[in-house]
Design goal:
Sufe protein. Chain: A, 4 strands, 45% helix, globular
Length: 150
């Protein structure tokens, strides 16, 4: 299990150091701001949806390593998903980081997202991990108002 924890930690560190899709998307169909007032994490999520499929996800902003890595991995995993599949991923990720989903039993389905399973042990960090996900969830529903983890 220790090797797995190291691997998961490496995934988070890699996505924090070199976040994927960290840019402004000028042709986004939905743009939503997300803010975690507890720690100051703040991201703008850009979403491009065509024919009910997430074509692109990008983000800009700043935050802790967990929030940035989560946003980065989310931006990679959501690409190519239907809106329904993206919503399903949101729900599973939320259950994972709150400790309500067994990561080992769902590891094949969750893939690299399992790296965030340990976040459930630190309740204050759950909001960091879920910020970008709540923001993209709001964008998928066509909302434009800023969201907060509070």
């Amino acid at each position: 299990m220790n090797e797995l924890q190291t691997l998961y930690q490496d995934v988070i560190l890699d996505h924090n150091k070199s976040p994927r899709n960290f840019r402004v998307m000028t042709d986004a169909t939905n743009v939503v701001d997300g803010y975690n007032p507890l720690c100051g994490d703040h991201y703008k999520i850009y979403l491009k949806v065509e024919d009910d499929v997430v074509k692109e996800v990008a983000f800009q902003g700043s935050g802790c390593a967990i929030s940035k890595a989560s946003a980065s991995l989310m931006s990679v995993i959501m690409k190519g998903k239907t809106k329904a599949e993206a919503e399903e991923l949101f729900n599973k990720f939320h259950l994972l980081v709150t400790g309500e989903l067994n990561p080992e039993a769902n590891s094949e389905e969750l893939g690299r997202l399992v790296a965030f399973a340990g976040v459930s042990e630190f309740p204050a960090r759950v909001k960091c991990a879920i910020l970008a996900w709540h923001t993209v969830h709001s964008a998928l529903q066509g909302r434009t108002e800023s969201i907060s983890t509070e």
